[in-house]
C-alpha cells in the first residue's frame, strides 16, 4: 500500500461555469448592441428592430445592463482561465506531512500552500446538512480545534461518496472519524 494519498480538487473549470459565462456574455452583448442600436439608429442586431427604441430611457438602460453583464462574464472567463480554486490535498505518511495546495487569483497570493504535521490532526470531521442549501463537507480537525476544509466548493457530493472519502482518509491517517453515525 502506498504511503502517499493525493486528492485532486476541481477548480473553476466546471461545465456550469462555462455555461454561465457563455450565456451571460451572449445576453450582455444582446443588451449592449440593442442599446447602441437605439443610439446610433443603425440595426446592429439581426432579426430585431432595436433601433426603434428610444435611447432615453430604454436604450441607455439596455446599454448599462449589457455592459454590466459583459463585465460579469469577463470575470467568470478569467476565473476559468486562471482555474481559481483548483489544487490538491496530499497526505504523506512517509514524511508525516499534509499539504493543501490551491490556486487563487493572480498576484502575490496566487498560490496557497499549507503544510500540517499528521501528528497535529485529531480527527476527520464530516458535516452533512440537507435542505434548501445542502452542505456535505470533509474537514481535518486539529488538536487545537481548528477545522481545515478539504472538499471543493460547488455542488455537494453524493452521501455515499463523502462517507467513502472520509472513511478512507480517516483510516489512511489513523485518526477518528466524526460526524457519521
TrEMBL record:
<dbReference type="GO" id="GO:0015979">
    <property type="term" value="P:photosynthesis"/>
</dbReference>
<dbReference type="Pfam" id="PF02392">
    <property type="entry name" value="Ycf4"/>
</dbReference>
<comment type="function">
    <text>Seems to be required for the assembly of the photosystem I complex.</text>
</comment>
<keyword id="KW-0793">Thylakoid</keyword>
<dbReference type="GO" id="GO:0009522">
    <property type="term" value="C:photosystem I"/>
</dbReference>
<keyword id="KW-0472">Membrane</keyword>
<feature type="transmembrane region" description="Helical">
    <location>
        <begin position="60"/>
        <end position="85"/>
    </location>
</feature>
<dbReference type="GO" id="GO:0055035">
    <property type="term" value="C:plastid thylakoid membrane"/>
</dbReference>
<keyword id="KW-0602">Photosynthesis</keyword>
<feature type="transmembrane region" description="Helical">
    <location>
        <begin position="18"/>
        <end position="40"/>
    </location>
</feature>
<keyword id="KW-0812">Transmembrane</keyword>
<protein>
    <recommendedName>
        <fullName>Photosystem I assembly protein Ycf4</fullName>
    </recommendedName>
</protein>
<keyword id="KW-0934">Plastid</keyword>
<dbReference type="InterPro" id="IPR003359">
    <property type="entry name" value="PSI_Ycf4_assembly"/>
</dbReference>
<comment type="similarity">
    <text>Belongs to the Ycf4 family.</text>
</comment>
<keyword id="KW-1133">Transmembrane helix</keyword>
